[in-house]
Amino acid sequence: MAIVVRLDVMLALRKVRSKELADAIGITEANLSLLKSGKVKGVRFATLEAICEQLDCQPGDLIEYVPGESSA
Fold it and tell me: Is residue 17 very low, low, confident or very high in pLDDT (cuts 50, 70, 90)?
């Protein structure tokens, strides 16, 4: 897929564990894991906002468009 999720990178940079983030933003660890792996079809803006607030980052720090990565 041309959209690459970099949530795991931001978690490492901020030294935050997935469980801590999931608890702080009110989603399950399973859903956060799916988001980290890029296996979701979409993400709510409220969830994205909560992640950015907790990790003190911008949405562009979490997701990236990489041309040529499409899986057609």
Answer: very high
In angstroms, the CA 24 to CA 3 distance is: 25
Please, how many CA atoms are within 13 Å of residue 7, restricted to the half-sphere of its CB?
A: 23
Please name the residue that has the structure tokens 């906002």: 49
Residue 8 belongs to what domain range? 3-65
Asked whether residue 70 is assigned to any structural domain, the reply reads no
What is the pTM assigned to this prediction? 0.87
CB neighbour list of residue 43: distance below 8 Å, 6 or more residues apart: 35
Residue 62, token pair as written in the block: 């979490």
Q: 61 φ, ψ to 5°?
A: -75, -20
